[in-house]
Amino acid sequence: MTKYLRYGVLTLAAFLLVAGVHSAVAQDAAQKTGAELYEKNCMSCHTPTPAKMMGKPVDGLVASMEKVKNMSSASGPLLKMQDTLKALSPEQIKAIATYVNQLKP
């Protein structure tokens, strides 16, 4: 193995290690943010363990929240949920969905 190839392989290995650590840290931060957002915005109505939503696919949870957010004639509890969702960014909604997804029934 030539000197340059060996350094290239070592550099690539180091990059992949750092990228993997960064990804895990980012995922942990998203989970924490999702948990905090859920506790602040959703828990009062949905309880700490929302059985019907726990473990559901993230995309499905996001789609459900976006549907409520964009309803033209929400009323009652859905109106309260809609008001809450309108104050959240798409990233925050996804963070909540990711948090709820990882909860185990």
List the helices and strands and how they pair.
Elements lengths: L2 H39 L1 H4 L11 H12 L7 H10 L3 H13 L3
Helix pairs in contact: 1-5, 3-4, 3-5
How would you describe this protein?
The protein has one domain: Orthogonal Bundle (Cytochrome Bc1 Complex, Chain D, domain 2), CATH 1.10.760.10. α3 (58-69) crosses α4 and α3 (58-69) packs across α5. It is mostly helical and 105 residues long. The chain has helices at residues 3-41, 43-46, 58-69, 77-86, 90-102. The protein contains five helices and no strands. 74% of the residues lie in helices and 0% in strands.
Fill in the keyword field for this structure.
105 residues, mainly alpha, Cytochrome Bc1 Complex, Chain D, domain 2, 5 helices, elongated
Structure described in brief:
This protein is mainly α and 105 residues long. The chain is 74% helix and 0% strand. It has helices at residues 3-41, 43-46, 58-69, 77-86, 90-102.
